[in-house]
Each structure stands twice: as C-alpha cells, then as structure tokens.
Design a protein that fits this description.
Fumarylacetoacetate hydrolase, domain 2, 32% strand
Length: 301
C-alpha cells in the first residue's frame, strides 16, 4: 500500500496507488460508495490515527473495487490536473532528524572524531514541508550555501513511550523520502541547526508513504542525484544507529505519536563534502530515490 495526498482540480484528497503505480485511487470516493465502518479520514494524519482499522478498511475496499471499473474511482498519476502533495503537508510537530548517522558523512563534515557516540538529534519546522515536483526557494538573500541531504523518513503509526528495540517496528506506519535541505552558512553562523535547517520549502517529502508491510525485511538503498549526477549512495545497513535504536532512544523520555516523522540521516556525498563544495544553485534538479519508496524530485528556484 502506497498512500498519497493529492490535489485534483483544487481539492485536496487522500488516495493510494494501484499495483503498477500508474493510477491514484480516490479513497474517499471508494469509502463513500462502498460504505464503511470507520469515519472517513480527510487526511493521511487522520488515517494514520485510525491505525489498523484504516488498513483493514482499505484492504476490504480494494477487494470490493476488484469487481468494479477502477477508472471510475481513480485518476492517472500523470494527469495534468492531478498534483501530488507532501504525504503529510502540514505535520503536527517539527520533523525529528538524526544527524551524522552514516560514518562517512560524519567524516566528510569534519573528521573521524565527529562520528557520534550517541544519537545526535535536531528538528525542522513544519513550515519547511513541500511535495515532490515543487520548487525549493533559494533564499539567496540570506544564504549562499544551500545543500542537499537525501534521507529515508519513518512515519510513526501508534503512540509509544520507552519503546523496546525489539518492538520498534510495531510502531511504524510506513516510510517516505525526505530531502533535508540545509543552509550551511546559517548552520555554522548560529552554531545550532534549527535556523539553517528550517527555511521555508527546505523539507521536500514524498512522493508517498509506503506502508511498512511492503518493505518488511527490505534492505533499503538510497541515492541522490543532482542534475543527473550521482552524489549520494547508501544503505540502511550503514547507519550508525539503526531504526529500532532511533525509536527506542527518542522515546525513552518523550512520547512518539501517530504521524510523527523521523528522518534517519544522510549518506556521504553532500555538496559541502566536495572540494571545492558543490552547493545548490538556481535551476538545479535534485532526485532522491529508494526503489521501494519512489523518487522525490525538486528544483531549486
């Protein structure tokens, strides 16, 4: 199951992709015509809040849809009037972000001494979020060092505190892609990550949320390209702190809630790691790809 938030003729709705990922099924229309035993969610945040009840209803509804003409309940993904938004266009909280979670990236940002012994956390404001194919503002009036960081993000599926590592995957609804675009000069100037990480439009996310059932036991591999040039390539096996460790550490004294978003860190190959640096410039096109999660594409203003 791959869930999307989309806009069609100016109206925002939620949907899911069909199996060959060519059509977006309008879940609200399906639920309305089939009849269902849950409140019809108006957003993916509401759907995630419903948990397994929502997933069960989707499963039953897809069985119902098999006997009908899918064209009456869906749109082609490439229809001009259809626009994919960020799966969660406005998160309830800041996005949790894990820093320096790949050893090679920690080294390129400093030295071996910068490889963290403990989880390094920062956040990005909800106002940073945009969807795939949207334009990232260049903020040229305050930064000349805009950089990219392709990442895999976790979407929390149920409330949890003091989560045990062996139970961590039970708390995950799904995964999406995220580009943690960063103003390196602001990051250095303020000696704290928040301002340099939270400029408007600097958290492209999507193109959809892939339910955890589709990627269970998968070794996710991520790559980032800028104007077609491969800049980053990594695997979740290379993370210093695994996904179960991340959830467990964060939740020891802080409650994780449905819809919370956690970016798991970026591999080496960011622009500031090159000599000379390869910062983003106007017109640059960035693609973040994980085969199981899709491709997140954005252009710099």
């Amino acid at each position: 199951m791959r869930f999307v938030t989309f806009e069609y003729k100016g109206e925002q709705r939620i949907g899911m992709l069909n199996e060959d990922q060519t059509r977006v099924i309008d879940l609200e229309k399906v639920f309305n015509e089939k009849g269902n035993n849950v409140n019809i969610p108006s957003s993916l945040l509401e759907a995630i809040d419903q948990g397994e009840t929502f997933i069960h209803e989707v499963t039953v509804s897809m069985d119902w849809l098999e006997a009908r003409n899918i064209e009456n309940y869906s749109f082609f993904l490439n229809e001009p009037e259809l626009k994919l938004l960020a799966p969660i266009p406005r998160p309830r909280k800041n996005i949790f972000c894990v820093g320096k979670n790949y050893a090679a990236h920690a080294i390129e940002m400093g030295s071996v001494a910068d490889i963290p012994e403990h989880l390094l956390m920062f956040t990005k404001a909800p106002t940073t979020v945009i969807g795939t194919e949207e334009t990232v503002l260049n903020h040229a009036h305050i930064t000349s060092q805009l950089d990219y960081e392709g990442e895999i993000a976790i979407i929390i599926g149920k409330k949890g505190t003091a989560i045990k590592e062996e139970e961590a995957f039970d708390y995950i609804f799904g995964y999406t892609l995220l580009n943690d675009i960063t103003a390196r000069d602001l990051q250095k100037k303020h000696k704290q990550f928040f301002l340099g990480k939270s400029l408007d439009t600097t958290c492209p996310m999507g193109p959809w949320i892939t339910h955890t059932s589709l990627v269970k036991d998968s070794v996710l591999e991520i790559e980032t390209k800028v104007n077609g040039e491969l800049r980053q390539k990594g695997s979740i096996e290379q993370m210093i702190f695994s996904i179960p460790t991340i959830l467990s550490v964060i939740s020891q004294g802080m409650t994780l809630e449905p819809g919370d978003i956690i970016a798991t860190g970026t591999p080496s190959g960011v622009g500031s790691g090159f000599k000379p640096p390869k910062y983003l410039k106007s017109g640059d096109q960035i693609e973040v790809r994980v085969d199981e999660l899709g491709v997140l594409k954005n252009t710099i203003q």
